[in-house]
Amino acid sequence: MLKSLLIANRGEIACRIIRTARELGVRTIAVYSDADSKALHVREADEAVHIGPSPARESYLVGEKIIAAAKATRAEAIHPGYGFLSENADFAQAVIDAGLIWVGPKPDSIRAMGLKDAAKARMIAAGVPVTPGYLGEDQSPERLQAEADAIGYPVLIKAVAGGGGKGMRLVEAAADFRDALASCKREAASSFGDDRVLLEKYILSPRHIEVQVFGDSHGNVVHLFERDCSLQRRHQKVIEEAPAPGMTEFTRAAVCSAAVRAAKAVDYVGAGTIEFIADGSGHLHPDRIWFMEMNTRLQVEHPVTEAITGVDLVEWQLRIASGEPLPLHQHELSINGHAMEARLYAEDPATGFLPSIGPLTEFDLNDGLIRVDTGVEEGDEVTPFYDPMIAKLIAHSRDREGAIEFLSTALCSSSVWPVRTNGAFLFRALADPDFVSGKLDTGLIARKGDAWLPPRLPSEEVLRGAAGRLIEDEPGVAPRLAGFRLNAPQRLQTVLDVHGTRVPVDFAAPAENWYMRHFDNRVMITESGQTFAIRLARFDGAAGAAAGDGALLAPMPGRVTSVEVAAGDTVAKGQRLVTLEAMKMEHGLTAPFDGIVAELNVTQGSQVSEGTLLVKVEKAEG
């Protein structure tokens, strides 16, 4: 076993690798950018090396800096994690040329699977079923149009060097082909420096089935069964599970055997994933499942495979990189129960899933029933520089229904604030009848439209519970008496502030079935995966004022890029007062009416949380 390891990554996956390395007695070295100087992976590693400014292109994507850090710390090996340089064959070769161990496949294997057309040709030669399509060298529009017509519409145009949903166009009619081809080629050239494309028959109800494979340097290759990653939004996975719903032993044997043949065809060593596209319009069957591509690295969703097999995949990576044979033979691997992973993103579904940044004042994920893989802790900050995934929630049970129940319960009892998350969206996905019944395909989220978007305010029951808790905990404070009538019971009412919105509610005893926690002068409530900060509006002064009262509150965490007024200035309705930048987007806050700037609480460069009072405008007398 190697003795020291540099992790060329950050966040959740870096912490995940450190955890296993520590258990094996391997010294760990982290690398970090300016933005990550206080990050969790830096704190958890035995040693850490600064590699540059915050943007990834100036730090985590600079191979020379990472190799230099490995040499300076006398690391034996480099683990790339996923993303960044993990599938960069030139970087892998540079690591090897520097005399270091590369924890990953051979550079030639990465190259062989890096271009979709060459990879498919190799798979055909290995007897792996591929989607009907065109992989030819003739890239003229005329030839491509003719091939698309022969395949039959709908057809998918895909960039040869593409990935992550870029360089891809769906064409449903012959008349639309030329325009879609030109658009796809422009995007491919811009994103990958290669405008070549291939054509595939588009599957109308596609399911994304992938198989985890592992190879060693002694010629052995095994599979660790399949995962279903069909629940996607804009080609990005949202919830993954293992095994795939509706997978029979017959179909599993055929698909997993094809995956092993695919790995052997490129002399594969280490962890890899063979991705297949399946026709989900009926039962899964071998003649309706085709090879799509190979990911030559560890996948984000690897924990669900670990859960059902009992195998630590990172440990296997380190053992194989150390020259050991595979720890288990194929007949020693089996499926135990069902596992499901939800990706928790710092993003707001209510604003089109725009990323949400800022401090994690509240970050309490209920991991009593589930496994939580994360790269942040309470008090850390979500920055605009990297992927917005802040945690992976992994549930394991004896069956699929149990996994859904555990994952839903965990989402209900977790709390993240003021950063917004997709937790409530995930909860609604898990409760959807189609998802529960296993009727999955990659278009399910798009078809549901806004049905899974969470409400902006808590339910009436939760608001009543919050009112009761707040009033009980405020000595000497009584709710307002309202609605007194001789022929009906009187009502007790108060006004709550929920993220800047004033809501009158009836007082009631605290609700018992909601996750509730105190924070300063407010209560934090998580309902169905969504966290709300609730306080008594009338006791919160300016911060609880509504916009109609002239109070301008920060709509999200961000940085004040300009302040265009001073206290005491006279302003006109619609005049811009402050500009807030969040995730590289500017948001101008304007005067709600003619008046005078009564309060100005920020300066240029200020970092603010959601709901912070920035400016208060009062109507001019007379």
* Major sheet characteristics: 8 strands, antiparallel
Radius of gyration: 27 Å
Strand count = 37
N→C terminal distance: 81 Å
Question: What is the secondary structure topology, with strand pairs?
Answer:
Elements: E1 4-7, H1 11-23, E2 27-33, H2 40-44, E3 47-52, H3 63-72, E4 77-79, H4 89-97, E5 101-102, H5 107-114, H6 116-125, E6 133-134, H7 141-151, E7 155-163, E8 166-171, H8 177-192, E9 197-201, E10 206-215, E11 221-233, E12 236-242, H9 249-265, E13 270-279, E14 289-295, H10 302-309, H11 313-321, E15 338-345, E16 347-348, E17 354-355, E18 358-359, E19 362-364, E20 371-374, E21 381-382, E22 389-397, H12 400-412, E23 415-417, H13 423-431, H14 433-436, H15 444-448, H16 460-472, E24 480-482, E25 491-498, E26 501-506, E27 515-519, E28 522-527, E29 530-536, E30 551-553, E31 558-563, E32 570-571, E33 576-582, E34 585-590, E35 595-600, E36 607-608, E37 613-618
Parallel strand pairs: 1-2, 1-4, 2-3, 4-5
Antiparallel strand pairs: 6-9, 7-8, 7-9, 10-11, 10-13, 11-12, 12-15, 13-14, 15-22, 16-17, 18-21, 19-23, 20-22, 24-25, 25-26, 25-29, 27-28, 28-29, 30-37, 31-33, 31-36, 32-35, 33-34, 35-37
